[in-house]
Design brief:
Blueprint: H1 3-23, E1 29-35, E2 38-40, E3 44-46, E4 49-59, E5 62-64, E6 70-72, E7 75-78, H2 90-104, E8 112-115, E9 118-119, H3 125-129, E10 135-138, E11 141-144, E12 156-157, H4 158-181
Parallel strand pairs: 1-8
Antiparallel strand pairs: 1-4, 2-3, 4-5, 5-6, 6-9, 7-8, 10-11, 11-12
């Protein structure tokens, strides 16, 4: 199969998956990149913060965007002011601080946030042919490495993978909608 055609087909399939989710009422995850701690004007200390970089939907090992882009998901957190009483472990305090910093970055409260996702080079056949992330270009087209440690023999065709993940996501949306209508 022609590599450029395979990548164009993959972009179309990813965009169609994002569109189906949006039409079904799925809320997209907010994508952010980390802005390291620095000094403003050379003297005013600024702590690490976040800058929005878009929206997308996490479908298992792949994050898809409406434009047909794909990324390897980074850390996933929820922007919230959740405060739990009593003693908390250091890791719980760190998660609470992260959730607060996401709110400080003006992300909507309760939104799911993907931090520092790694875009996949779907416009570059040479880069995709050596990619070891969740999407891999092979002679058979674009395949999905659904688990980071999966061997090449376990890769799945992108279309099949997206169909399975969309069935799961749309089924969960439908079930949540039904539950909220009939508590």
């Amino acid at each position: 199969m022609d590599a450029d055609r395979a990548l164009a087909n993959a972009r179309a399939a990813l965009a169609a998956a994002a569109e189906r989710l949006a039409l079904a009422g799925a809320t997209p995850e907010q994508l952010v990149v980390t802005v390291p701690a620095h000094r403003a004007l050379g003297v005013i200390p600024r702590r690490e913060s976040f800058r929005r970089s878009g929206e997308g939907f996490v479908l298992g090992a792949v994050l898809v965007t409406a434009s047909g882009g794909a990324a390897e998901p980074g850390r996933i957190a929820r922007a919230s002011r959740q405060v739990l009483p009593g003693h908390q472990s250091e890791s719980a305090r760190a998660r609470r601080e992260l959730r607060q910093r996401l709110l400080d970055a003006r992300l909507p409260e309760g939104s799911t946030v993907v931090i520092d996702s790694r875009p996949l080079p779907l416009d570059d056949a040479a880069a995709m042919s050596v990619e070891r992330g969740p999407l891999v270009l092979s002679d058979d087209g674009v395949l999905v490495r659904w688990m980071p440690t999966a061997p090449d023999s376990a890769l799945r065709p992108l279309d099949e993978y997206l169909a399975d993940r969309l069935d799961l996501a749309l089924g969960a949306l439908s079930a949540a909608r039904t539950e909220s209508e009939h508590p």
